[in-house]
Design a protein that fits this description.
The chain is mostly helical and 140 residues long. It has one domain.
């Protein structure tokens, strides 16, 4: 297999971050507007912050899990760079495996991003979340 480089993964993550933030902001705005109207303007800043956080997690999870388990096997950022996510045998991920990969990224974040940097040094260019979820990122 031709494993994706650290830098192609980094650029894909950057593009996906922009996309997810735009989608989350729009979803949060619509949901906030709806709840504001529904509650007659009695929606506190604290509640809005919690709602925004929850919407961000849901949007991000669904974006990555649905994209990686789709027939394209890639997010828009990965598609732009010609890379896909597979299981260890090169097959498409199930939604459950894609979900496990997404939430394993939290561990990569908690290690001060060392979990991501691992992709530059492991034999198959796997980050910590790839190792945990049993996935590979390869060139299409």
């Amino acid at each position: 297999m031709n494993y994706a480089s650290f830098w192609s993964r980094f650029l894909a993550a950057l593009l996906d971050g922009i996309i997810v933030n735009i989608i989350s902001a729009l979803a949060g705005f619509v949901m906030g507007l709806f709840l504001g109207i529904l509650m007659g303007g009695n929606f506190s800043d604290g509640a809005a912050s919690v709602l925004g956080f929850i919407i961000g997690i849901i949007v991000s999870w669904l974006y990555f899990a649905l994209s990686h388990s789709s027939s394209k096997q890639a997010t828009l950022g990965k598609q732009a760079l010609g890379i896909v996510v597979t299981d260890l045998t090169g097959n498409r991920l199930s939604f459950g495996q894609a979900t496990a990969r997404y939430f394993s990224k939290w561990l990569s974040n908690l290690t001060l991003l060392i979990g991501y940097i691992m992709a530059a040094f492991t034999e198959k260019n796997q980050a910590l979340h790839d190792i945990i979820a049993g996935t590979l990122v390869v060139k299409r």
